[in-house]
Each structure stands twice: as C-alpha cells, then as structure tokens.
Amino acid sequence: MPRLTEEQRNQALVCYQQGESSESIAKRLGCSGPAIRGLLRRRGVLLRDASACHTKHPFRDDLFLAPDAEARYWLGVLLTDGWVSDTDGTRRTGLCVHERDRELAEQFRAFLQAGHKIGRKRTKTGFSVQLQIRSEKLASSLAWWGVVPRKSLIATPHASLLSCRHFWRGVVDGDGEVNADLASPVLSVCGTKAVADGFADFCRSVFPMYEPSVYPAKVWYTRLHGEGAKQIAAHLYRTDEYGLSRKKEAALLLANNNRTYRILKKRYG
Asked: Any idea where the domains of the chain sit in the sequence?
C-alpha cells in the first residue's frame, strides 16, 4: 500500500471534516480505513461515532438517559424481547417479536422517531419481525438499565425500576402471559431469576394478600392465578396507554370483572 503524500493527507483531513467517511476517503486514496483514522487521530481530529456515519435515518438516541413513563415501559420490553449486539466493532440495538405482535415493533419505532425498516424473517414457529438500529449512544444508555449483550441468562432489572408499573407492564408485554379465561385467570412473567423475583416483589408490594408462585422450569416464572391475576392486571393496565393490544385487551377483560379496577379507574381516570 503506497504512502500518502502530504497533499493527500491534507486532503483526507479536509474531506473528513466536511462529512465524508474515513472508509470512503481510504477507498478513494487507495489505502485502508484504519490508516486514515490513525492519520486523523495524529492530527488531533475527534472521530465521529462510527454508527452515526452509517445512519441513513435520524432518530432519538437520548430517550433512555432520563426515562419518562413511556421510556420505562420500553425498558421492560427491551429487557425481555430486545437485544444488543457488539460484534464486528459496532453496537446495534434491536427488538424482535413474533409477526402477530408487529405493532410492538412499530410502536417502538414511533417512540424513537425513527425511519428504519422493520425486517421479517422465518423462524421455527412461523415468522418474526425485527427493528434494528445501529447506535453507540443508544446501546450505551440502555446498558445503564441492564439491557446488555448476551443478557438472556443474566438480565437484572435496575433497582430504580422495581416499583414502576410501566416497566413491569413492558415486561409482561415482552415475555408475559395474560390469560383472560374468567374461570381460571392467569398473569405470569418468565425470564431470569432476577426478573421473576423482581416481579414477585412488585406484586407483593401492590397487593400483599396475594402470594405469587415463583418457580424454575427452563427459565424462571412468576405466576398469579384467580383474583391475584385480576388485581395485578387492573393495576398494570388501569389506563389506556401504549402497549401490546392483545395483552392489554386480555388484561382489561380480567380487570373489568373485579371491583379493584373500577375503583382505580374512578381514582385515576
């Protein structure tokens, strides 16, 4: 690989500062991307986030820095159904759900104010859909809340989210079950032991008279039956908010059949 002349080095510096990527400059000058980035560092140039250089669609990457109620809901969804990848030197964040729950991916895209395409792929059980975003800043902010690479065996809710019903509604929408059979209602969450224990503690703090079952299978489960399931469903879904419609409808069907929901609805609207 030929050495760059001083004129080419200066040209590379100017082009990068005008917005051209280091890889594009390297290709044009017949050298490697690392060589251009090394040159820029030696010249004191602050390199742009690699993910920003590849972003075709603008989006909000700051929404989890100081999360409001809706952001806390999405933290619950992402802790269960989301993923973060740090392979090949880039960091990507994604949400992958069954095709029947495509609305969840669409809502997450709208929340981020993103224009990214939602992909579709075949799985063993049918089709799934996925929203994938490349961003160092987004991945870093999610890591603070426990949404990290390879989290399936270590996912742990952040301490500040343990009493937040918005967060736990997101967990239920992501990896929970809401069975609206009025003869045998069930509300459950599955995941790591930390997630199962956290949800059980949340349920006890809200309605201590109902003791949830916490037990291991292939993963850990927290499950409530009967009146306990109705009470927690009423508490989580007491207002008409964002979320997965099929679970919201099931939860409200349970909630509408108990006195607690009517009291909460009257109090909070």
From this structure: 6-48, 69-151, 165-268
| 147 closest CA partner among 76, 65, 87 | 76
Instruction: Please provide the CATH number assigned to the domain covering 165-268.
Output: 3.10.28.10
Q: Which of 155, 101, 90, 163 is nearest to 130 (CA)?
A: 101
Pick from 171, 173, 175: nearest CA to 198: 171
- Are 35 and 43 contacting, i.e. CB atoms less than 8 angstroms apart? no
- Report, as ranges of residue numbers, the positions in the chain whose pLDDT lies below 50: 261, 263-265, 268-269
* Cα–Cα nearest to 161, from 172, 146, 141, 151: 146
Cβ pair 247, 169 in contact under 8 A: no
Task: Give pLDDT tens digits for 53-93.
Answer: 555 567 888 999 999 999 999 999 999 999 999 876 678 89
Gap between the Cα atoms of 97 and 156, Å rounded: 20
Cβ neighbours around 205 below 10 Å, total = 10
Enter the pTM of the model. Answer: 0.76
Radius of gyration of the chain (CA): 23
Domain 69-151: which topology? Endonuclease I-creI (3.10.28)
What per-residue confidence (pLDDT) applies to 145? 96
